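ping. complex inputs:
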Amino acid sequence: MASSSWKANKDQLFRGDAESGVALPTPSAPSSIVRHVLYLEGYGRETPYLSGTESREIADRFAGADGYVYTGRPKDWVNLGVKHRSRKELLQLLRGKGKGDAEWPSAFEVMRARQYVEEWQEHLADFRNMDDIAEDKLRDVTKKAYSK
Amino acid sequence: MRPQILASCANCWFNGLQYGSIGLSVGYCTEHKLVLRRSEDLTCRRHMRKDFLLHSARVFQLHHQRAFSEDKVVVMATGNAPGNGEFTEESPAFIRNDSVGDIVADYGEYDTKIESLAQLRTLRTFRSEFAMLSLGRAYTDRCIKRGGSWTSGIHLLWWIKRRMLDLEVYEPTPSDFRYSAAGSLQRQVDLAEWSLLMLRLTFISDLGVHSQGAADSVESLQEVAEQAALETEIPNKRKLLSWIKRKGNSFLEDAMPESRYRAITAKLLKEPSQTQQGA
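pong. complex structure:
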């Protein structure tokens, strides 16, 4: 179970994903945090973010029976060029009709996204700065951000 | 995290037994008549997200149907039928050991669906209300699709209105949760209670949308959930209850005073086909 004492400079995040590897982000995809958290457009949608959670139990649930739980250390992400968007930051953005990258036309959907960030103890790895790097390099960075 | 969980049977309005971290360890699909042992791994083309307002749920369904086009329950990861009993179970015997599960298992089987919803109403528990609201949304939407009227949901609207006027809120028990979520148990409980109140407002908003352009419309209700979210800003039970007391109940009273409810239901008794339309 996650706790409010989680610290970016020492603690890790968990990500439930396919056993074959972590999903590849698309840096140029729409940057809306609400769109990302709510999984709008569904199966096959592209996103510049990878979600992770403070809670191993939640990650297990997202991994499903055939998946795998990967671990990531946000303090190492800076050197990879990946930006850490903390739960605290997300909660600050997800109010009313949202602020910054969480601005959204529907307050109901912003609120729903906020609920999920809270319940899932969610953080994001932001890959938007990697718009111009080759796919194999992006794959390498992704693997380093969340590893087995 | 793989967000496909939001496109799974666990988050579909035809499954009245689960809602996020709330509910039984297994779900039940009232469309395919299946006990869902691993609801978060399953989906089908009829999937309707119960965490969304009606318009967004419909848009999501269109996207979803591009990937899942066959009218059968499948394992999301493979697209294959669930096969042996690992994912689903045909017999509802197990869920009948639960009072909500017992009613849900009979939904659409013997009596009318509104009768099942009425039974859920009388249980007056945290999970029975989730089931009533979730299946109630499915019920009214189906009635509209089959040419019926928004008034198919008028009794549900009235029941919900009564509960909102009385500020009747059910509290969850420890066995109402499927897993731990949020940073503390206290916050998980608060979010769960907020979810129930917001689901009431979501049902009301649905009915407002369904009634657009109809005679005796309650169109003014379609913005209720959005308005509540805008004015309360964050998911918080206390803030939402306060909003319902200050504003939400006035919206309801203006749209459906008792005199109007009685007049519409009296009319429906004379023309019963307007109520259900084979839902």
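The first strand of chain B starts at residue 18 and ends at 19.
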